[in-house]
Amino acid sequence: MAHSKREIERKYEGPPGSGSLSLPELVGTGPVHAVRDQGVRELDALYFDTADARLAAGGLTLRRRTGGEDEGWHLKLPLAADVREEIQAPLAPEVPAELAALVRGFTRGAALVPLVRLVSVRELHHLVDARGTLLAEASVDRVLAERLGGASAEWAEAEVELAEGAPPALLDKLDKRLRKAGLHRASSPSKLATALERTAPERTAPEPPGTPAAEPPGRAGARLLAYLRAQRETLVHLDPAVRRGLPDSVHRMRVATRRLRSALRSYADLLDREATDPLGAELKWLAGELGADRDLEVLTERLGAHLAELAPELVEGPVPQRLRQWAGENRGDSRGQVAAALDSERYLALLDRLDALLADPPFRKAAGGPPRKVYRKALGRELARLRRRMERAAATAPGPERDLALHEARKKAKRTRYAAEAATALLGSPAKKLAKDVKKLQKLLGEHQDGVVARDRLRELAAAAETAGENAFTYGLLYGREERAAARCESEVPAAWKRVEHSGRRLRHKK
Hints:
Blueprint: E1 3-13, E2 34-49, H1 54-57, E3 61-66, E4 72-80, E5 83-89, H2 97-102, H3 104-107, E6 113-128, E7 134-147, E8 152-162, H4 169-180, E9 184-185, H5 191-198, H6 220-244, H7 249-266, H8 273-308, H9 319-342, H10 345-359, H11 371-394, H12 400-427, H13 429-467, H14 473-509
Antiparallel strand pairs: 1-5, 1-8, 1-9, 2-3, 2-6, 3-4, 4-5, 6-7, 7-8
Helix pairs in contact: 6-7, 6-10, 7-8, 7-12, 8-9, 8-10, 11-12, 11-14, 12-13, 13-14
């Protein structure tokens, strides 16, 4: 069974041309009271990847290591600068199925094969405080790397890894001390990246899939590709977290999916729609599959919070138990739906299609135009579409038809917001203000729609309670609260929309 831990570490190299490396005196660096020698260990690691190093291109490493206290299989996922999550599985001859599944969004069905062998002789030291509590591990590794069937290389490097619970500021203090002693940050993020570079000098580190084609810097097409690429990176790197069911991962992946689709539609003047429309349809499918789990999570939290606000004497019958049962039954179904989507060939084909578009974008003539003009025009179109939706909702009588019209306006508001966010780096504060105001409008419309969905579910729960012979009073009480909340949201929408229109005018007139 795999388990995980978070690593916060930095790697260092010696001065250029030096064949050896040693640690300076670290006692007295921040809270470091003593440095305890832990001896020398020999670590033998076999790194697995696809033949074209797709994991390495994404910053991931998968190894089978013997020697040391943590021998076994290790999958390392980048989280932030200096931070990685290491998922460990017991030592076994083959890649554990659980780890292979976590990297499927990167491998796309390609086989995981041994690529590089690293043998490290590690001098390990524990940095402890005055109480003897471990603060960090500092090590010096002499590394022999062999690309299987290819060249080999040797080098030395140092590594400092914070212990769990150690103050993050210690890493900066140690960094300052090491730099003063002549060490510098390693140019590669991992031993594997160093090995791939040094054993294949004619080939630099592998390029990530979907590397944008050449486009004159500063042109509208280059701006759009940079944005699309950033969302693509977010989507793919969230894949393992979604497969593991980590908090908020489904929501963040869904947002990246929607931002991709929104950008393709909002800035359709820049790319051939014959290529982007089919991709947009697949992104819509993926967002829908991810949405089942997220929508259920939001609804469950909403109903639970409203129930908790009621006085105990107003809760008639086993309402909390019925809510938990309903949420549990549906959560299993929705999570299974997400897992099935990520394991499908359709999802992998979507990722391949996205990478192909980024690698060879079907630019239209406008892509070579001045970006400010192109982006401002696109935002103007989105605002016009949103205005039509808002006017339609305002002209519709209260009831289900108006609820639907407000929901459609919400979707347009979300697309307008994403388009404004994509333009913020280019158009500056006017686009940023527009995105902020549209987000507030979207939130109001979203609260209204959540209330519509909640009332539908409450009717279903009340009917089930009555069938079981239970008192349905509390469900009716919650229904009334949802009605009042929806009315409050509707009353605040006109003012929120007025602010959006003001920001839109400011954007149009800003030169």
